[in-house]
Amino acid sequence: xxxFPGMFHEAWIAMGANRLRTTLTMLGMIIGVAxxxxxxxxxxxxxxxxxxxxxxxxxxxxxxxxxxxMMTGGVRTDTGSAPTLTMADAEAIxxxxxxxxxxxxxxxxxxxxxxxxxxxxxxxxxxxGYLDVRFWxxxxxxxxTESDLRSATRVxxxxxxxxxxxxxxxxxxxKTLRIGQAPFQILGVLDRKGQxxxxxxxxxxxxxxxxxxxxxxxGTPFQGSVRAILVRIERAELMPQIQTAIVDLxxxxxxxxxxQENDFSLRDLAAIAQFATExxxxxxxLLGAIASVSLIVGGIGIMNIMLVSxxxxxxxxxxxxxxxxxxxxxxxxxxxxxxLISIAGCVIGLTLGIxxxxxxxxxxxxxxxxxxxxxxxxxxVAAATGIFFGFYPARKAARLDPIEAxxxx
Amino acid sequence: xxxxxxxxxxxxxxVIAIRNLYKDYPTPAGAFPxxxxxxxxxxxxxxxxxxxxxxxxxxxxxxxLGCLDHPTYGDYELNGKLVSSLxxxxxxxxxxxxxxxxxxxxxxxxxMTLEDNVALPLxxxxxxxxxxxxxxxxxLEKVGLARYAKSLPSRISGGQQQRVxxxxxxxxxxxxxxxxxxxxxxxxxxxxxxxxxFTKLNRRKGITIVLVTHETDIALHARRQVRFLDGVIVQDAxxxxxxxxxx
Lengths: 409, 247
Prior knowledge:
Helix content of chain B: 25-40%
Largest interface: A-B, 27 and 29 residues
Strand content of chain B: 25-35%
Order of helices and strands of chain B: EEEHEEHEHHHEHEHEEH
Distance between the termini of chain A: 32 Å
Strand order of the largest sheet of chain A: 3-4-9-6-8-7
Oligomer: heterodimer
Helix content of chain A: 55-70%
Shape of chain A: elongated
Structural class of chain B: alpha/beta
Number of helices of chain A: 13
Order of helices and strands of chain A: HHEEHEEHEHEHEEEHEEHEHHHHH
CATH superfamily of chain B: P-loop containing nucleotide triphosphate hydrolases
CATH architecture of chain B: 3-Layer(aba) Sandwich
Distance between the termini of chain B: 28 Å
Largest sheet of chain A: 6 strands, mixed, barrel
Number of domains of chain A: 2
Largest sheet of chain B: 6 strands, mixed
């Protein structure tokens, strides 16, 4: 269309001539786009957090906890509370095919002391392979060894939160802290892992050799018992059959009869995380739908004002038609006005939405993700809204009878 | 036929050639005949005043002349082209290139500067903005309003607005100017100035002018007077010299 630049300019003049109304018309669009961008960035931020916690769990990880929800005596106790799993169970599970790595854990809380600072923190007794199962690298120092495990030495790896609370900026590697009266030497510092999706701070941890935890920190009524076994399988597809294999193996090893309940329980953490991902996805679709409604409302606002504008400018349209404008020129002009208003509203809305997300991130530390695709989509949706809702008023303008329009007061 | 300077111009293509034109308007009481068999030929360089009381059909006639309305029956040739045979696109082009409109209410766009107003018809010819505005400013200069080029219409008087409207009508170098009661909203002194401008355009540029008025002294500026009554032309005669001399 050769007259496009001319019509663009005409539309621009018309918009500038009534700034207040143009701004008010845009407002619907601004709010619509801003809310879309804001919601998408917050929801995607939440999604990325969930994704991170899935990754921090380690992929394809299975947890076997000792004890069961229902004990034989009818007394309910928490899983992990009765030590029914042993080191030998862990080793037997390690023999199964499809197991990539395994790590028995014995955990509990204890008072940690370093100098004048103390911290009631979580202690994990584990094997050197634990870090491998969890994909958890060290940022300083080194892991303890099998020989530490055999001789139950007092060495430890320290998590970021624990390190911050006990060492307050000092480098913990090589330092010695106390658990009760027993001194423990820090061998290494764990990388930051963040929150697990059930809300625990995974960095609040001190990892010691399993044997050390069993014999020297917590003590245990049964030699060699562990509270949990962490298992990483080779491929996700193997998950169901390995779960069955582990249950069969442990029932056999624990000599459980037919009909007797398991004295352990299995948790497929990846599946739980998957559920969490799907929940946030549903949430994002829901919020997206709500935000889209506000875009449509913005579009209707534009149509409304454009209709008023056409009526108000009837005489102008008559003049334009009389001095040689074609119907298509009038249509183009009004359509262009609607599109310009939408796009301008969209740009302002984008700015506000992105600014708002950043502000939210800075003030309440909500994780946000601003994706280029959501910006592009918002832009085209705005343009499409302008065309869609601008078309009817523009066509109404173009169909005016010039004689009637010129006579209009 | 006598032209403006008394020369015989009958061999030229007429600007307006109308034969046996009828226009009916549908009303609840049946078709109302606004024009009942009009025939009129206007040659290049003529200055025609169309007169008649309101309801005599002269407005309908002007709308048809301006290609804004179509006759129910009869042929209208504008500058040799049969208007009824043209499509919307060609009609718009004809209006743009051949016609200039001057209205009673000036009809400038209130939110545009005067130069943009004058340049408006060129927008639809696809002329780039810089060239449009340069041309508009030259025309504003000719009507003596160059200093208001960047002002809005509300800043100037009615007479000045009408001169801007005339400048707008002139921007495409039209063959024919259609003026519908151009002095109807102006006082007599301003009216005289506007009529002097029309006369100048007619004499110097040879632009054909058809002007609707019901004021006799305005009609005196024209060289030919056509009088409408009840949808027919009841009188079509050259303005007599002694009447044309101004006091």
